[in-house]
Amino acid sequence: MDARVQWNIRGFRSNFEELKLLLNRSQSAVVALQECRLGEGQVPPRGYTLLLPQGGSSGGEAALLIRNGTRFSEIDLKTGLHAAAATISLEKTLTVCSLYLPPNSQVSKLSLAGLFEQLPKPFFVLGDFNAHSPGWGGLPPGWAGEDAQRVHS
């Protein structure tokens, strides 16, 4: 069983069948999704709970799917970023955050650091950062990749 999976789904509804296949194959406890483009009343795949950013109107640009039966506690993030997070209990308790940074958006190191400070440790941040950096094979380097690499260090 894969405990964590990340996917920029580019449309929850348009890729729903592929998502169900992924969930059936991986049996993942938690899936971080980006660019969900959720509509009103979107129903999660059977066997999963859908977590969206609380109090935001992001259209579900970041979301978490948590397998039913997995103990979790949703985290109410205070951020302007597209992010959803929960603390989950597997063999150990850990925090998983799904984050989407749109292309060409100017996200400050302070915003990212503020998000990270809200996440109980240990934590994973999974997402589409649209951040190119030679540090992970992305060329050409851009401001987002350089900043992400500095915040990560």
Automatic annotation (TrEMBL):
Domain Endonuclease/exonuclease/phosphatase residues, every copy: 5-138
SUPFAM superfamilies assigned to the protein according to its UniProt record, in alphabetical order: DNase I-like
GO molecular function terms attached to this record: RNA-directed DNA polymerase activity
Stored InterPro entries: Endo/exonu/phosph_ase_sf (IPR036691), Endo/exonuclease/phosphatase (IPR005135)
Keywords linked to the UniProt accession: Nucleotidyltransferase, RNA-directed DNA polymerase, Transferase
Gene3D superfamilies recorded: Endonuclease/exonuclease/phosphatase
Protein name as it appears in the record: RNA-directed DNA polymerase from mobile element jockey
Organism (species): Plakobranchus ocellatus
